[in-house]
Design a protein that fits this description.
The protein is built from 16 helices and seven strands. With 383 residues, the protein is α/β, with parallel strands linked by helices. The protein has a five-stranded mixed β-sheet with strand order 3-2-1-4-5, with helices on both faces.
């Protein structure tokens, strides 16, 4: 058993697969030592074949695979596709595959829970079992063994049956439009690219002092650009806790930075950080960012959110849809305060499944009652 390592063989494979209605795809990658995920193996299956492709093979041009990904006549089926889509975004030069079917998302509207594991879907839908023997493989090492390749290909062969059974359930339930909207959300390129200007938002900034916040923002932007340029994890450039330490100590010279015992930067980075801090310290107070404290929720809104949360759980169970797919905690808090809140729960199928009931509950036209072993029951009241 050998993966494809030659461009001509990859081109032949992709030519055949572009005649299919759908293909199943999975990837193996490493990102513990790089900024961008390092693609180490691609598994692809059609109706009659399942093949591994070695993107690390010398001289292999992945262009035929890119053409397959971008061919809108072929549906691409994946499970928990966010990381795969990030890889494909960079592989395809800033474009994303479409159309895409994510079996994890589909499972959420078929009664399988919040973030159902692929292994669970395989067991329940195919009655098969996944080979776990190579789960912790270093996929960047060569050569790959037959056992590793069998393990990798198992993901895309089982995925065919998982897809077909989920698609049948969704069509029978009349929920195709529900998941199509979710799949369309996967086409947002912002999901796969970290903007250096907003990278500070990943951090827990405990102080709102304007100059501290300004230094944190500047350091986070510098770190993101540095990590991207060197293709190393951002934590390799500067750990989060050390970034905060720099913002707190504000070294004004190379010597002051070197006096911070926990921080060790190379000469170039040391000079860049000192210059960056000096630049922020020189900025007028009026130009510094302000982090406004969040407005406290209106008094009494907590119980309303709690009632909405119970209603959400009831509606989710009644419709066999994962709660988080209908509404988040932030959505419930917004809805508790505003009947016209711009939240997904008040649009489309979510409104029919939960939103309309939520508005009735708030208006006093719906009550929740515990009905013995039957659990929560909804009671319509006269308006």
């Amino acid at each position: 058993m050998q993966p494809i390592t030659a461009t001509a063989d990859l081109a032949d494979l992709c030519s055949r697969l572009r005649q299919e209605a759908y293909v199943t795809i999975d990837t193996e990658f490493m990102r513990d030592r790089t900024y961008y995920p390092k693609l180490c193996l691609v598994q692809i299956a059609g109706a009659a074949e399942a093949v591994a492709v070695d993107p690390l093979a010398s001289g292999l041009d992945m262009a035929p695979f890119v053409e397959l990904l971008l061919d809108e006549r072929v549906l691409k089926v994946l499970h928990a596709s966010r990381q795969d889509m990030e890889i494909f975004y960079h592989l395809c030069g800033g474009r994303l595959p479409r159309p895409v079917f994510d079996t994890q998302v589909a499972a959420q509207v078929c009664g399988f829970g919040e973030e159902v594991a692929y292994e669970t879907l395989v067991t329940k839908l195919t009655k098969g079992r996944l080979d776990k023997s190579s789960r912790f493989t270093d996929w960047s090492k060569r050569p790959l063994t037959d056992a590793q390749l069998r393990y990798a290909l198992g993901d895309v062969t089982h995925l065919r049956v998982v897809y077909e059974k989920l698609a049948q359930r969704i069509e029978k339930a009349g929920r195709t439009a529900w998941i199509e909207a979710e799949f369309e959300n996967l086409q947002d390129s912002a999901l796969y690219v970290q903007d250096p200007e907003t990278s500070w938002q990943r951090l827990k900034v405990r102080s709102k002092e304007p100059r501290f916040v300004a230094i944190v923002r500047a350091l986070a932007r510098w770190r993101e650009l540095k990590a991207r340029a060197k293709d190393v994890p951002r934590q390799r450039i500067l750990r989060d806790d050390l970034l905060m330490e720099l913002a707190a100590n504000r070294p004004r010279s190379v010597e002051q930075l070197k006096d911070l015992p926990r921080i060790s930067l190379d000469r170039e980075s040391t000079r860049e950080v000192v210059d960056l801090v000096a630049g922020v310290l020189a900025r007028p107070e009026a130009e510094l960012p302000r982090l406004d404290a969040p407005e406290p929720p209106p008094k009494g809104i907590g119980p309303t959110v709690d009632l909405l949360r119970v209603l959400l759980k009831h509606c989710a169970e009644a419709s066999d849809v994962a709660q988080r797919l209908i509404a988040s905690t932030a959505d419930l808090e917004a809805l508790a305060q505003d009947d016209e809140a711009p939240v997904p729960a008040l649009k489309g199928w979510r409104r029919r499944t939960f939103g309309e009931q939520a508005l009735k509950l708030k208006a006093g036209r719906l009550a929740l009652a515990v009905d013995g072993r039957q659990g929560v029951r909804l009671i319509e009241l006269e308006g």
